[in-house]
């Protein structure tokens, strides 16, 4: 119920993870259709980049203003930090404060004077401003780091590399918010170089009890996890896409014209293959470099046909091998019979 600096940092990380989820699924999904020249009706979705910018903007972001309050001379309190937020973020559509210049929150009794509220992707969250400045400014002093580095215990020494006299930096140590922001940026950079698979876990109830299903809780999670937008994009688009070369290589055994070798462009081979299998035209589309299949059942049908064909090919290989083995044995026995007969006639 009482959200402070720690929950604010956690929710910031969640917003960044949601942003990369949007970019790698919803945005990338629709941009791929455009690149491939596929007819497509754009699906609207909420991009939470505006919320991330509210928190991490280097000039007017909440973390930047918090650092500014921690570094400026004079009397600095949580109230002065909130006052600065009220001045800079008053007109932001996702920032709410009772003391801001925005008159629409002056009579909001659900919002205390010492709090501000952010409309996150998952919903509105109210933060108690008390403790923000102290927690952000909770720095490890340089003399403590040096003392820990001089310890005889190797683990303690390794935990405080900044205490090494050879690496002394006279600059002010970064604040907790700045360190977390840098860590999140490193994490996002790492994730963008990967091809992640998302597993969304739905919590059925808050009691961790079996056979209890809280419909309101589940619906709330579905909304803030972005599953509705993802399902809309998937249902309106194509469930499966693959480059022409690997697609032809995988399913070419299903068509006599493409098996065992297809001489020509891979796209033309896939087209011949799909025409041979009599797959309805509305079930697939040809992109510039990929084949797009709309419904999973079409893909399941291809996989079932491929599985059956592999079994038939295995049976054919086994039949030919057994025939060759029996013929080889027969010819060997025939040759032996001739040799035995010739020697018998010689001595008869």
From TrEMBL:
PROSITE patterns: MYOSIN_MOTOR (PS51456)
Molecular-function GO term, any one: microfilament motor activity
InterPro entries recorded: Kinesin_motor_dom_sf, Myosin_head_motor_dom-like, P-loop_NTPase
GO annotation, cellular component aspect: brush border; cytoplasm; microvillus; myosin complex; plasma membrane
Superkingdom of source: Eukaryota
Gene Ontology biological-process entries: actin filament organization; actin filament-based movement; endocytosis
Similarity comment: family membership: Belongs to the TRAFAC class myosin-kinesin ATPase superfamily. Myosin family.
Protein name: MYO1B protein
């Amino acid at each position: 119920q009482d959200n402070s600096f720690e929950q604010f940092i956690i929710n910031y990380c969640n917003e960044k993870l949601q942003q990369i989820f949007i970019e790698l699924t919803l945005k990338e999904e629709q941009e791929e259709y455009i690149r491939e020249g596929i007819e497509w009706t754009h699906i609207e979705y909420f991009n939470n980049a505006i919320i991330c910018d509210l928190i991490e903007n280097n000039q007017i972001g909440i973390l930047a203003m918090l650092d500014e309050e921690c570094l400026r001379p004079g009397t600095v309190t949580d109230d002065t930090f909130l006052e600065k937020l009220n001045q800079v973020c008053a007109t932001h559509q996702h920032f709410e404060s009772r003391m801001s210049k925005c008159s629409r929150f002056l009579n909001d009794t659900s919002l205390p004077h010492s709090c501000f509220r952010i409309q996150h992707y998952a919903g509105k969250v109210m933060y108690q401003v008390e403790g923000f400045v102290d927690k952000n400014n909770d720095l490890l002093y340089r003399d403590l780091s040096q003392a820990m580095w001089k310890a005889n215990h190797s683990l303690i020494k390794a935990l405080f590399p900044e205490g090494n006299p050879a690496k002394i930096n006279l600059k002010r140590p970064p604040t907790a918010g700045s360190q977390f922001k840098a860590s999140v940026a490193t994490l996002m950079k790492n994730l963008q170089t990967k091809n992640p698979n998302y597993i969304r876990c739905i919590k059925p109830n808050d009691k961790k009890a079996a056979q209890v299903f809280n419909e309101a809780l589940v619906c709330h999670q579905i909304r803030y996890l972005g599953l509705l937008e993802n399902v809309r994009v998937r249902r309106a688009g194509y469930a499966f896409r693959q480059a022409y070369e690997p697609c032809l290589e995988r399913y070419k055994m299903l068509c006599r014209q493409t098996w065992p070798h297809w001489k020509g462009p891979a796209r033309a081979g896939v087209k011949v293959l799909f025409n041979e299998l009599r797959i309805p035209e509305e079930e697939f589309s040809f992109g510039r470099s990929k084949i797009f299949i709309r419904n999973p059942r079409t893909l399941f049908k291809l996989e079932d046909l491929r599985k059956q064909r592999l079994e038939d090919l295995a049976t054919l290989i086994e039949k030919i091998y057994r025939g060759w083995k029996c013929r080889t044995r027969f010819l060997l026995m025939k040759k032996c019979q001739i040799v035995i007969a010739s020697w018998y006639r010689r001595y008869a």
